[in-house]
Queue: 2 jobs
Job 1
Amino acid sequence: MITRKSVGAILFREKEGTKEYFLLRRKILDRYWGFAKGTPEKEETEIQTALRESKEESGLKKIQLIEGFREEVHYYFEEDNQEYDKLVVFFLAKVFDKGDGKVSHEHEELKWLEYEKALSQITYEKDKNLLRKAEETVSKIKKSHNP
């Protein structure tokens, strides 16, 4: 079994008083909806990977990580008759760009969706759970800034 690691970020923004989450639809395999993520490059930290992959896969540049949010997702899959053990580390980040971003060569489509719509759009349950944790964290941040 081959072990692989990816790192990514759950991106959100506030647009006209509404909080939205950034989702991507992958081109390959089962064309699932999820978050920006990718493989760390040599000597790169998890945070550096999360920021680089988020920028590369979204076309967005003004991305700020939210301190204290780091979640892991672990799963197994098979590809080309080979078994893989995959760990994906996710951070939470706020986007300050004015535009919506652009679809990378790895993806077919992107969407900015409010929480409930994003939750129903996401393909895998593990990613839905990540979004739930992200929403909880963002809500706590908002409450602490607006008592």
Job 2
Amino acid sequence: MHVGLNLIYLVPGETGGTETYARELIPELVAAADDVRFTAFVNEETAAAGGPAPWQDLIPSVIVPIRARNRLQWVRGEQLLLPKLASAAGVDLLHSLANTAPATGRFRRVVTIHDLHFKLVPDAHLGLMGLGMSVLVPLAARTSNRVITDANSTRDELQRHLRVDPAKVDPVPLGLGATRHATPLPEAEVRRRFGLGQRPIALSVSAKRPHKNLARLISAVALIPAERRPALVIPGYPTPYEEELRKHARDAGIADDVHLLSWVSDEELEGLYAAAACLACASLHEGFGLPVLEAMARRVPVVCSDRGALAEVAGDAAVRFDPLVPGSIAAAIEQVLASPQEAERLREAGAAQAARFTWSKTAAGTLAAYQRVPGQAPRSRRRRRQNVS
């Protein structure tokens, strides 16, 4: 069987979690599948990028002659050029890994829909991107033979909002890769470099986007009395929304307590995890919740939103709160900061929870979804592998 992997959305270093999905899943698919030939379909930016990548090192690739940073080119490439190239390559099944997919083609089609942000949190996608998602995601869900989601909650949302038959949907949780890619910067240097003093650190690894609910997280920290208030540290790529967050912190009277960092190095990020008293994830909607698992795997106590996939992924290994109520967020943070016993319980429970999520399981679930498509299906073989959590 010949499986094509639609990666024309992917621009290395710019595509976030969907890039991680491709990088981690492809090696496990190749390792687990018997009698399956994989071909990646990539854009010009990805083809020109250097560095190791599974779509270059493990499987052959076909260049779709578009530049994905141009959204119109990306749509044209996916809907018009990719079907012709996949058919010419002899693909039996095309798996699109990032929410959208060609609507036609002489091959069977599987799409992974990670979330319905365009519908549930429209601020997550602005302008042409938001308009495009509102058309292309429902189209992919409707015309694909199978739909993969990261969580049961997204399957339910597909049924509720797009009327997708749940029997057509396969929830396949994501995995967790290596939890440390660099030696942590020593805590004393972390505190000095970012001006954090000696207070406890509440870490929130997050893009500065409205649906991440950072304004309410800032309001929650402002409710904690100054003598107990943690330093709130938010690393993640900057957006135009960041200035609103800075103003919100100033208006709340805690500008000196909120540290909105931009990109940080791997060493700095690992240092922040190591120094953090807790990770706070207040997002209003997530398709999965990798930041929660990544913190748990590093034995950082987690407090998080009780909404959708976050509640599903965190289980009982986190203190959960109502993300619409700053008082609820503040109470969860204080619960962890005030009780070393609770913090230690969360460290132990979080490490065990994170260990349940592996990319080998994600690959097995993905191959099982392929098998549910009518026609020839790939076989999988059991392999003894050491999973890193």
